[in-house]
Amino acid sequence: MKAFIDCCLVLLICFSSAIGEDQPLETTSTHVTNLKVQVTNLKADQGGQLIVLLFMGKETWLESNLEQSKILRPISPNTDLIFEFKDLLPSESYAVQIIHDKNKNGKMDFQWFPPKPAEGTGVSNNMMRLGPPAYESAEINLSAELTTLTISLVY
User: Fold this and answer.
1) 42: in domain
2) Residue 95: is it exposed, middle or buried by C-beta count within 10 angstroms (0-12/13-18/19+)?
3) pTM of the prediction?
4) What is the DSSP-derived secondary structure letter of residue 29?
């Protein structure tokens, strides 16, 4: 009986080690990337500040205080117009909105007639339309090739 138990244990050990060899080792390396955003067509003579907002996913798009990251930069003649968002996951989708906040109130102001933004604005992919831009139009998917995004402000 002892020989039978020993034989079963040996078979069990061999069987379990064989199963372990056939299964690939799971590695969970998370790659991150950086996104540079360059702003063009800024009317710096109007002063104020630039608000650069990075949104992750459609659910948060253009929702106040739901941005992934926010950069505020005062505008001067020497304002650097390149912004960088670091440690982003390429597996996620993102969209960027830029506001030329002329009066520094921290939000985009609108004029009544015709109804449109009273301050310069732009979104990723430079997709502007009547009404708020759709997330699908502004959505960017990061890859190793995409490191710089150029957004032109519209006034």
Assistant:
1) yes
2) buried
3) 0.77
4) P
